[in-house]
């Protein structure tokens, strides 16, 4: 017998994973500890 994949379960699993990725991305963007620091030191010679 042929077994067909359960597309409803696959769709729900994909939506859950997508939701977790979106929530994680928003957490990283909105977390103040993960922000870049734009402080430049006076002796910064890394620019060309």
Give the SSE order as H and E letters. Answer: H
Shape assignment: elongated
- Tell me the span between the first and last alpha carbons: 68 Å
Q: Which value, in Å, is the CA radius of gyration?
A: 22 Å
Low-confidence stretches: none
Helical stretch tally: 1
The chain-level mean pLDDT equals: 79
- Largest sheet report: none
Classification by helices and strands: mainly alpha
- Count of individual beta strands: 0
In percent, how much strand structure appears in the residues? under 5%
Q: Summarize the amount of helix as a percent range.
A: 40-55%
Pfam families: ATP1G1_PLM_MAT8
Main location: membrane
Transmembrane segments: 12-30
Family: Belongs to the FXYD family.
Blueprint of the fold:
Blueprint: H1 7-30
Pfam family, one: ATP1G1_PLM_MAT8
Protein name: FXYD domain-containing ion transport regulator
Membrane topology: Single-pass membrane protein
Task: Describe this entry's structure for a reader.
Helices cover 50% and strands 0% of the residues. It has one helix and no strands. The model has no long low-confidence stretch (mean pLDDT 79). GO terms for molecular function: ion channel regulator activity. Keywords: Ion transport, Membrane, Transmembrane, Transmembrane helix, Transport. This is FXYD domain-containing ion transport regulator.
